[in-house]
């Protein structure tokens, strides 16, 4: 393994056979040895190292017992050459971009049991304040990228899904958080490929005054060329209240308010928190199918999410379907069609009568 600039060996580079656990690391002189018992065929050799761009090269294994594979790594200057597509649909390299962009990938979004996209961003973006305003399982989520800028209007950032601006306005006169539900709850976090967040005020130069509170660009998953790939996941969720208020359980009470009279009579005490809160359970089921040819690529997913609230008689149901088709018409034209279908999105929030 050698450096493209000086031709010297690259130590500590990881050499792995793609889609397997077979891997090794290069020595101080850049040489490596990977012992593996695999069937003859064509494999992809993935090579990565800190400070260098990742590369993948094909490796054909036959009946021979030993094969030599050399590679050259090029420096990756902190991804400055990475292409970023901004709101005006112009590709721009990061070194020429006037905004600081934070990226959250799909794996980070699906960690935990987040109900909606903004909730999944909690703790994953530096400088972003994400807080839930109520105990409602589908209640309002406040996202602040640049602090609170207004009392009358909304301080939430501008949400854009695959280039389409999401209307997330609240009918409330004063948006104080409350129970206003974020419409991003219709989108399953498992359908997200990545999220790019622009926190700088310069984002308003791209999207106008609506971007004064920052921009959250959401890119959904699309089909890739190859054999059909099926993804199935199922999660079981348990939620319970962490701490309740202290309740007076002393079985006696004073008969009057005179300080000198300490006469007490038996009294029955109640802790209604036991009737309000419960151990809530939920389930999150997801399935997706993707694949296609060089000309046609497809992605389809369906999900069912049901989650109880820790307050009795509160819950949230979501059934969604998503479809994305990409068709290459000519060498200069292509067609992409997508749809997100919220089959059922319902939240119930009421206090059960006792």
TrEMBL record:
GO-annotated cellular components: cell outer membrane
Location of this chain's protein in the cell: Cell outer membrane
A Pfam family: Plug
Superkingdom of origin organism: Bacteria
Keywords attached to this entry: Cell outer membrane, Membrane, Receptor, Signal, Transmembrane, Transmembrane beta strand, Transport
One of the GO BP terms on file: siderophore transmembrane transport
Main location: membrane
Membrane topology: Multi-pass membrane protein
MF terms in GO: siderophore uptake transmembrane transporter activity
InterPro entries membership: CarboxyPept-like_regulatory, Plug_dom, Plug_dom_sf, TonB-dep_OMP_SusC/RagA_CS, TonB-dep_rcpt-like
Domain TonB-dependent receptor plug: 94-215
Record flagged with keyword Transferase: no
Family: Belongs to the TonB-dependent receptor family.
Protein name (record): TonB-dependent receptor plug domain-containing protein
Biological source species: Hymenobacter qilianensis
